[in-house]
Amino acid sequence: MTAPRVVTVRRPCGSCGSVEVTQVPLPLPSGEQMDFVSCQECEANTWYRADGSVANRDAVLTEVTAADRRAWKRL
Ligand SMILES: [Zn+2]
Description:
The chain is an alpha+beta fold and 75 residues long. The protein has two helices and four strands. It has helices at residues 57-63, 66-72, and strands spanning 21-27, 33-39, 45-48, 54-55. A four-stranded antiparallel sheet has the order 1-2-3-4. A hairpin with a 5-residue loop joins β1 and β2. The longest helix has 7 residues, at 57-63.
């Protein structure tokens, strides 16, 4: 058992560049740790891969199983 990591990195909005965002760590079934970023300025959603690159939304959803999508609806 390891304690959850405290996320201190604030990724900017992928649409407008604002740092006024809500960042949620999001592990994929593949084991990759992504960050879901919801902008409070323009309400855009951005997915960041572990390496910091922006992920395509459709590509992310393809990697999420039907079971996991139930959990995603809380976002
Ligand atoms: Zn924005």
